């Protein structure tokens, strides 16, 4: 596998790293936050706005796109980049997480997983090979192996068996990409599979909340030699200490010269804590999901703009925030829009929240370069706790 990850700086007081990942659609500076484009769209935000927010990569959900509009439609449009008009990098998940959290009547076998989708109940089947085929058709720059994401809590024996199955599935994903990629490269014509051969594939560490299973799963993934490694099965309802421990148990066994991705995380302080534990990439629906319910992220914690206290507030969501929302609009006006269910209201908060997440990553990168990341992290976490609405530590 190729190595397109360059480590530019490391923090002396924590495991924080500053890196750069090269893909066919552009460079990603790490630590990086990836806005989530569940249905081929980051809810309420256009690709132009994502560029203005300095988002360098978005995440696409294989499961959602596979169920609707379906692969044939996306193939017809020449892949997900063309379909959604985004020419930056795209990371696609394997669909595993949604199959295990959304779909009904799942049946897991060695071969793959059969399920009933949550939209029209149609039955479908995804195997490691099919997960690769779908991600190749989407035109993913970073694809993920098919994994089983176990719920919290999960018994030791089940978590162990499941992590072993995930490792066998990961091997099949790796082999599919190698085999079909080589064949496609021997052909003369350009094809999605040929392009996919040059894209990246990340392995996923599972193992629930058990240190030895996390370690064994990390070692099994590293043996298969992926382009990067994700920590999966975190942020599934476990207490925060368990989440930190899951990452701490796996991280020492991951190679330093490959990117690490903590899946489905988190609040701003959680991301900084994960960066300090050696993680490089994050994705999370919180900034877009909470915006739709009137909640804004600030350095001091979350703010519910529906609250009556903001009705006459002429100030921006956050003082000194450089986002477009804060430059132009007052808390009082945004509160009115949200109460009146005006679409602009949720869009303005979404833009602020995404700016807040992306800007935090940019700040973290600068602090790592300057050797001041650990002080920055501690000060941020302490300040955030004072007014926090989401428990962080
Ligand atoms: Zn703002």
DSSP helix fraction: 40-55%
- Distance separating the two termini: 38 Å
Ligand catalogue: zinc ion
What percentage of the residues does DSSP assign to strands (E)?
15-25%
Task: Give a short synopsis of this structure.
Helices cover 44% and strands 18% of the residues.
Describe it.
The chain has 393 residues and is of the alpha/beta class. Helix content is 44%, strand content 18%. The chain has 16 helices and 17 strands. It has helices at 47-52, 62-67, 71-76, 80-84, 96-101, 128-138, 156-186, 192-197, 211-223, 240-250, 268-276, 286-291, 324-328, 331-339, 343-370, 373-385, and strands at 5-10, 17-23, 26-30, 32-34, 36-37, 58-60, 90-92, 104-108, 113-116, 123-126, 142-144, 200-205, 228-231, 260-262, 281-283, 295-298, 301-304. α11 (268-276) links the parallel β14 (260-262) and β15. It is globular and about 60 Å long. The two termini are 38 Å apart. The model is unreliable at 388-393 (pLDDT under 50). Zinc ion binds next to α13 and α15. Residues 317-318, 321, 323, 325-326, 352, 355 line the site of zinc ion (ZN).
List keywords for this structure.
393 residues; alpha/beta; binds zinc ion; three-stranded antiparallel beta sheet; nine-stranded parallel beta sheet; globular; disordered C terminus; single chain
